[in-house]
# Entry
Amino acid sequence: MDSCDQPDIISNLPDVLLVLIISCLRFKECVQTCALSKRWRSVYLETRNVSFKETDFLSPSVDANPIRNALGRIVFVDYVHRWVARIHDQPIDTFGISISYPETYIDLIESLIAFAVEKKVKNLVLDFSNPAWRTFHDVNLDELVVEIPQSVYDLATLESLKVGECKNFDPSKLSNLGKLNTVSFGWMVLTDPETLLKNSRVESLTINDCGELYFDTIKGNMREVAIKKL
# Structure
């Protein structure tokens, strides 16, 4: 039998199952499913896991060209605006925003954080670090401009949280979140992290270039600990 005569089992599934399937994909791969058919152009918008990563929109060659980089960031931000505008009552489990040099987009970032809190997400990524820091470890603390609002510290549904390059971040304010078990911090100054680690159920901890923090200061119920320093 010719392969083109084979039934399309996936496309015959109800939308509710398709949403579960695409929610298991990386967000970039989920978006790519919209090219499959007219039906998929509406289904992929219902994914429960949303992650807006600037690097998915800007290739290294674009990043090396200031003009193309600026235009690419405009396209990226416009895409984020349009996506969020389409989402109404549907649930979101995972939400992430990763964008470097965030000072230009403070209003957008604040609105996205408010959106994630409103959706009562389980997994949240707020990463505003410069990608070059991962390679050269040349962290500039003067570039920290985004402050995490109290609403995030109070988000009782959180199970995992990743925060990168945020100003005045205070991990101790997360210690009352009973469901939080995975945390990742990077490229910033941590205020009193020990309170969180001793008084919470956090089991997995990752810290990248966050100043003077050593293994012998880590106390709590951790099963996985990774600390990377300059």
User: Anything to note?
Assistant: The chain has two domains: 1-47, 49-228.
